[in-house]
Amino acid sequence: MNHPDESKSTFMERLLYRVLHYHLPVLFLAFLAIVLGIYSYTILPKDVYPESHFPRFQIIADTGYGSLKETELSLTLPMEQTLRTVPGVESVVSVTERGTSTVDLFMNWGADLTEAYQFVQAKMNEIRGQLPPDLYLQILRVSASSYPMSEYGIWSEKLSLRDLNTFVQYSVVPRLVGIEGIYSLSVVGGLETQVWIRLDSRKMAAYNLDPLSLEEAIQKASHYSFLGRVDDTSNSFLGFGGKQLRSLEDIRSIVVATRMGRSIRLGDIAQIEDSHAIPRRLVSISGHPGLIIDVRKQEKIDGIRLSQELDKRLASLVAESDAGLHTIKWDMSDFVRDSLQSVLISIGIGSLLIVLITYYFLNRLRYALPVIFMLPLIVIMEFFVLRLFGQTINIMTLGGLAAALGILSDNATVLTENYIRNQNLQKGVKGFVATSARILPPMFSATFVSLVIFLPLGLLGGVPGLFFKSLLFTLASSVILSLIATLFLTPILIRYFVGFKGVEEKNQDRKMVRTLTEFYVRTLESAIHHRKILLIFLGGFVVTTGALFQFIPGGFIPESDEGKIILDYVAPEGISLEKIDRRMHEVEKMILSVPEVDFLIRKSGTSLASPFKASNKGEVVIVLKNNRKKDVWKVIENLQESMKSSFPEIDVDFFQILPDRLGDLTGSRKPILINVTGQDQELLMTTARKIQGKLQKIKGLSGVLVDLPNPTKEIRIQAREGSANLLGLFDDDLSRYARIALYGEEVGIMPRGLQQIPITLTFDRDITTVEQLRKLPIFTPEGGLLPLERLAKIEIEEEYPETYHRNGTPVVSVSAEIGGGRSLSEVIIDIQKALKEMKNERVGIELLGDYKNQQQSFRELLMVLSLGILLIFGILLFLFKEYRTAIIVFLGTVTSMTFVVPGLLFTGTLFDVSSFTGLIAVMGIVANNGILVMKFAEENRENGMRVSEALLEAGRLRFRPVLITNLTTFAGFLPLALNFGGGGEVLRPFSIAILSGLTGSVFFSLIVMPILYSMFHREEK
Questions:
Q1: Per-residue pLDDT tens digits for 168-193
Q2: Measured CA angle at 989 (ends 985, 990), to 5 deg
Q3: H/E run at residue 855
Q4: CA distances from 954 to 385, 518, 580 (A)
Q5: H/E run at residue 436
Q6: 65, 183, 362, 624 — which has fewest CB within 10 A?
Q7: How far from the centroid of its chain's Cα atoms is residue 764's Cα?
Q8: Rounded distance, CA 842 to CA 917, Å?
Q9: Long-range residue pairs from 853-856, CB within 8 A, at least 24 positions apart, any chain
Q10: Taking a C-beta distance cutoff of 8 angstroms, is the pair 971, 405 a contact?
Q11: How distant, in Å, are the alpha carbons of 46, 177, 302 from that of 306?
Q12: Buried b (16+ CB within 10 A) or exposed e, 233-258
């Protein structure tokens, strides 16, 4: 291939010649990139949303059952005080329940979370000695992977709940642990094995034995320790002393005392039972008592592949076992698979539409082939880029790829269309190089402007950053790939498919294209002559849309139909776990009778986000059928009505998993959250109840709850100084007696295989009434028995079962869900009116939830929008080298955003984070079109044309490519806006905003900008 004279050719011409000369190596590199892209797709992790760490740590401290005040003083306050000193802390939020304290540490966005985690660990180690010794402590670095990916419900026809728990813990879980990608497996529910020593009070009195001395005797008898080493001439022996309790008979044979030369063994005064522990958490699987295996995956692990491996391994275990096991599961990987499939379908449909549009306008299949081939090449290669930069395949990255489809084809279309239009002017390679070298610089400049608008979006933090950084990374990297491919691959594809011999004379634009072009030119000519009238009309349109903007409902993040519902419930306080379990079985029957429900998993005393909850709290995971007539929101509405009419005593709240998880990650448990803060607990509750009453009257709010239950009755036992203390008994002694009688006291461990079975001491008669507790026999040091009421004050008092703190200040929250077809902005207006009437100097009232997140996100987006506008104007000044043309393109670009308003209103789309981000992205697309048109007008003027002639000629030449690129971009976004298959709802507002802006971009780039140009550049005489 002949090369041009280096001294007479431009850099772009020389580059194009080299690309065509080295076409075989370039094609090989492209083939290699395709192979890497296909391989990357198969190994890239797949999830719903991008993996991201939130600036939050959660510290869970649990000691079992305990006093609320004691828990608050011994756990919550020390942790709050020390964690406040961690650098970068924004707020410290705590929840204290009886025996459990959960402290959430919210950091500033942008904080170094690795360093902060080390600080949190160091601070907790500092106070570890101040905390109770038998403490369960967990420090979580909160991310999407901190929550269960799936839950496997298991029940058995043959095994008891105790045996089922043992079988799953020691036979099933160990077989699952080796699966790659599992972060943790937790067994919840069932009954844990426990040995009970039930003391006979009469026999103990006969032998003058008391429980406290028995406890010490049992602990000594079960003490087994290392003694030392014996070395003889040939062997070395390790010595151990004491006794290991390996069976119930070993426990029965423990000598607890001697009387008259006779050994009194534990079996003489107590009944030894191999039974189960008192349950704190109960699980039901569609009405069958059972347990669940809670699965959490590692970060950046393919949840779909992990789920498939778990299913396969568990099915094999069930088939091998003769325990009559049954399993069901809910799994977020199902929603991941459906969502990704939906977006992939959108990519496929968008690609097909782009191919058809390109073929129609270019009028020959071989002319369209360079563009047709470019699309799959770039899409496949983008997966390699995602792998290279540590991204995952999720709704947002695939959404960015789908959104980029139209833009990906733009550059190849512009280059191909330009050559086909001009190749008869100068045939052969020289003609191609000359025409292409002319169009490539403005095309690259226009695409660069599109990229620039994405740069400020990369600064987004918080929830917008979580959702849209990955989308924008994919979009920007795809556009960069398209630029590279256009420069290095499109010339080669044009060489092979179009050729350099010239176009057939009979090849002309289609009649409709010619008609549209002529109509456009006449319209533009008329618009230039009547520009003042048109600009007045345009000004009125901008003002009108600005006024209409206030009527667009506001939102935060769109929800998808996940096919899964979480029912959070709070039963009345003071009811035993067993009674709540029986009542919730009735609730399960009602839920399972709903035609759309497939199965459910109900948990009492625990939830997805909290391993330990009060016994009257729990949740039901309701999994809906795939083929159903009603969507998830209609099912929720029906269930709310049924619960309200059939179970009015149970407070319930309905939500889907992902919105709740997002709210929990950001610290906003519900869409509507109102915090009431102050020092007077009674005043806080009174104010919260008043707010609850006002919110219940607001249309569109449901599940309005005060997140602090009513006070419940507690029994307080305190030694009488005049009687108990004189006998040598004190508060701790009497408390231990009562604990042994009511709950049991752990006194040792019995190993059984790998199990460590607790040995618990209690009395043979259960105490079920306060009167029985008053008559509890207490063994005095001098011998004899006295009732507890003689030695201690027994009082019944009321106490709140839990307390909340925010930055060390007591807080009571009122929360609610949004429904009834109303938007966030609509209900917020009503809430703010209601709260104005609630002002009180002694309490603070703060509106949080999605409203706070929305306001914070919108502030960031406004900052990004402002920065984007400044960057575009700066680049336009650089491109056009004079301010007038730069201002023209700038004004056309900014005002084109007004088309987004009628688009959102017409489609009923909320103005939320998604649509706001789409509005910002529109600017880059509009600026792209405007630059190409104005650049040609500038060149025409430089070649001696008058202003009007230059504009009409530029419009004539650029009408078809602008129309093609806009239609192909429109086609790329259209399937996302239609949301085929569900799961892509978060992308729908983004796409609708883009489509609305694209509709306006044709008008602004082809009509408005030329009119402004004619005004700013007067005709020369």
A1: 998 899 888 888 888 888 888 888 99
A2: 105
A3: helix 850-880
A4: 37, 13, 77
A5: helix 428-457
A6: 183
A7: 50
A8: 41
A9: 853/462, 853/463, 853/556, 853/666, 853/668, 854/554, 854/555, 854/556, 854/824, 854/912, 854/913, 856/462
A10: yes
A11: 10, 12, 6
A12: eeeeeeeeeeeebeeeebbeebebbe
pLDDT attached to residue 658: 76
**310/184 Cα distance (integer angstroms):** 13
Separation between Cα atoms, residue 479 and residue 125, nearest integer Å = 50
Q: What is the rounded CA–CA span in Å between residue 620 and residue 772?
A: 36
Token pair for 207? 């032998």
From CA 568, how far away is CA 147, in angstroms rounded?
16
Whole-angstrom distance, CA of residue 37 vs CA of residue 31: 10
Residue 590: its pLDDT value, please?
A: 94
Decide: 801 and 714 in contact? Cβ < 8 Å.
no
Kindly give the residue spans of alpha helices, DSSP state H, lying in 943-1008: 947-978, 988-1003
Residues sharing a CB contact under 8 Å with residue 924, sequence separation 6 or more, in sequence order: 449, 450, 451, 452, 453, 454, 872
Q: Which of 135, 113, 131, 129 is nearest to 58 (CA)?
A: 113
1008, HSE (Cβ side, Cα atoms, 13 Å): 27
Cβ(656)–Cβ(564) under 8 Å?
yes
- Confidence at residue 1018, expressed as pLDDT on a 0 to 100 scale: 67
CB 632 within 8 A of CB 562: yes
User: For residue 494, what is the enclosing H or E element?
Assistant: helix 490-497
Find the helix packing angle between 900-907 and 988-1003, rounded to 10°: 130
pLDDT of residue 463: 67
- Backbone φ and ψ for 594, nearest 5 degrees, come out as -70, 125
Quote the tokens at residue 218.
């049992």
What pLDDT, on a 0 to 100 scale, did the predictor assign at position 621?
92
For the record, the structure tokens of 395 come out as: 């709704």
What confidence score (pLDDT) does residue 36 get? 93
Rg (CA), the chain: 36
Q: Which amino acid is at 659?
A: P
Write down the H helix ranges in 44-130: 68-71, 77-83, 113-126
Q: How many Å apart are CA 932 and CA 1002, to the nearest integer?
A: 12
Cβ–Cβ under 8 Å, residues 982 and 560? yes
How far apart, in whole angstroms, are the C-alpha atoms of residue 128 and residue 137? 10
The alpha carbon of residue 64 and the mean position of all alpha carbons in its chain are separated, in whole angstroms, by 30
CB of 61 closer than 8 Å to CB of 70: no
> What is the C-alpha separation between 470 and 765, in angstroms, rounded?
63
Q: What is the pLDDT of residue 144?
A: 67
**Phi first, then psi: what are they for 967, rounded to 5°?**
-65, -40
Six-digit token string for 946? 């008058």
Q: Are 917 and 464 in contact (CB under 8 A)?
A: yes
Confidence at residue 1021, expressed as pLDDT on a 0 to 100 scale: 42
pLDDT of residue 727: 77
Report residues of the chain scoring pLDDT below 70.
1-8, 144-145, 406, 423-427, 457, 461-463, 467, 502-509, 609, 611-612, 663-669, 820, 980-984, 1018-1021
Q: Pseudo-torsion of CA 845, 850, 855, 861, nearest 10°?
A: 160
Distance of alpha carbon 597 from alpha carbon 616, whole angstroms: 24
SS3 749: strand
Closest residue by Cα to residue 520 from 1013, 999, 951, 966: 951
CA-to-CA distance for 18 and 498, rounded, in angstroms?
19
Phi first, then psi: give them for residue 628, nearest 5 degrees.
Answer: -145, 155
Cα separation, 100 vs 240, whole angstroms: 38
Report yes or no: 552 and 910 within 8 Å, Cβ to Cβ.
yes
Instruction: Report CA-CA distances (Å) from 87 to 78, 117, 227, 835.
Output: 17, 10, 48, 34
Residue 440, classed as helix, strand or coil, is helix
Q: Scan for tokens 């000695």, then name that residue.
A: 129
